[in-house]
Design brief:
This protein is of the alpha/beta class and about 230 residues long. It is about 30% helix and about 25% strand. The strands form 2 sheets. Strands 10-9-8-6-7-11 form a 6-stranded antiparallel beta sheet. A 5-stranded parallel beta sheet has the order 3-2-1-4-5, sandwiched between helices. The relative contact order is 0.12.
């Protein structure tokens, strides 16, 4: 039996899409719901029927259901085989559950925009104008690698010939804006630059302020290369 919430004038809906940010969004929603002592709902939407989802997507859904149970969420909602625009579905669920706050991730918004053929935020503001929208940006932490990198700081890449230079000043020449994670124990700007590129989250290697190419790298590759150089 679920615990009766102290406040019923507030209710939170977390919208998750496949990828590493889903769990983070749920935990953010759980934290806010706990502070407000209000109901929490978790929603994911897929145009395919549930029995046609691949193993990776099914695993994400199982994990989200588990998190919903662990944090005493009111309900985990899966809208599968859904052909309508994503924003319309979110708005419908929000009205059904009397939602007052919606949490959505930056990456999920970009992904779902491709399906919905329009801006989710703009549609939601038209459909349900009296709901607070929280768009969560790229994480400023690197999961499971906190002991190797400093906390992320806002930074920029400036195009210089065939490479990019890291900068911490916003100018008209910037090519990309993101978060820089500096490696611990180095006097130079070595580490990882994390940013959105073509609606995908990329992590690129920075060596002495320089990014040679916009190639996605794993953190283990960066650490392994640094250990080899030592």
């Amino acid at each position: 039996m679920k615990k009766i919430k102290g406040r019923m004038d507030e209710s939170i809906l977390v919208c998750v899409y496949y990828g590493p940010n889903g769990e983070r969004l749920i935990r953010r929603g759980c934290k806010i719901a706990s502070m407000l002592d209000c109901p929490l709902y978790i929603l994911t939407i897929d145009p395919k029927p549930f029995d046609e989802l691949d193993a990776e997507k099914s695993e994400y859904i199982s994990k989200w259901k588990q998190l919903a149970e662990e944090h005493d969420a009111e309900e985990f909602i899966l809208r599968d085989n859904e052909k309508r625009p994503v924003a319309k579905v979110i708005a419908e669920v929000a009205r059904e559950k009397h939602i007052t706050q919606i949490i959505i991730g930056q990456t999920a918004q970009s992904r779902w925009e491709e399906i919905a053929k329009g801006s989710i935020i703009n549609v939601l503001l038209r459909e349900i104008p009296f709901i607070d929208l929280h768009v969560i940006s790229v994480a400023r932490g690197l999961k499971d690698h906190e002991g190797h990198f400093e906390k992320g700081v806002r930074a920029y890449l400036i195009k210089e010939g065939d490479h990019y230079r890291l900068s911490f000043n916003h100018t008209k020449d910037i090519a990309h804006e993101g978060i820089f994670f500096k490696e611990l124990g180095t006097d130079f700007n070595n580490g990882v630059f994390k940013f959105m590129h073509d609606k995908e989250t990329l992590q690129v290697h920075v060596t002495d302020d320089i990014v040679k190419e916009l190639k996605n790298v794993s953190l283990s590759e960066v650490q392994g290369e640094e250990e080899t150089n030592e």
